[in-house]
Amino acid sequence: MNKRQKSFSSIMKAIMYVFVVFTFALLLWIIGSVVLQGIPKLTKEMFSLVFTTENLSMLPSIINTLTVIVITLAISIPIGLFTAIYLVEYAPRGSKFVKVVRMATETLQGIPSIVFGLFGYIFFVRVVGLGYSILAGTFTLTIMVLPLIIRATEEALIAVDDKLRQASYGLGARKLRTVFNVVLPPAMNGIISGIILAIGRIFGETAALQFTAGTFEQIAKPTQQGSTLAVFMYNLTAEGRHTKEAYASAFVLLLFVILINWLASRLGSRIGGINE
Fold this sequence. Notes:
The protein is mainly alpha-helical. The protein folds into two domains: 3-41; 45-272, MetI-like fold (Orthogonal Bundle), CATH 1.10.3720. Helices cover 76% and strands 0% of the residues. Helix 2 packs antiparallel against helix 7 and helix 6 (162-170) runs antiparallel to helix 7. The chain crosses the membrane at residues 62-88, 100-124, 130-150, 179-203, 246-264. Belongs to the binding-protein-dependent transport system permease family. CysTW subfamily. Residues 62-264 form the ABC transmembrane type-1 domain.
């Protein structure tokens, strides 16, 4: 390596370090701002079962958020998982159908959430007749996160070595048994990563849910309207009178995201350890 190459390498390394430090500092600044301004405003009243204009309780929104996540994942994970399995394991490689499905999933990933919200409002709220409800919101979110889960699962399955499949077939195992007992276990870490990303998108979604699930602050049944924690935080900020309470709800939202990411990472590590 000559002097010119060494100088270029040193410059690129310095630029890389600068961007790493900048990214880390930006993350710390965002988290620190939320923590420092959110914790002092947390009160017992903000965790009351019933929301009022006096207590500004976020507990109904927290419960609604968990309901939306559970229902959305219960619908999207099986559909996304089996779709990816079909595309990778059963569909002929290089077929036009597979190319069309992949193009569709990639296109759906780039569509703004407000477009999904408008579609959900027209189709689920008005045409299907669900009205503003948790169900209308979860069906809309299912369409939003399906491409994410499909692509993550597909990439995880593709990354599995074909030698494992061939060895399974050589031992007399059938296609279905090979997929579930040989291919899926080593791909679980990638699949869980896709699910984590889907949960993160559900947690932070506002536009699509405002059009479908509504903004009413109550502990909602699936057929009733109710706001999630992100929508609740947006409403507080939009009013301009409860900025401190919005920071408190942002802190709780941040805690939930960190907790779920940690649990999912632990689950992925445990599954990976079992597979090894």
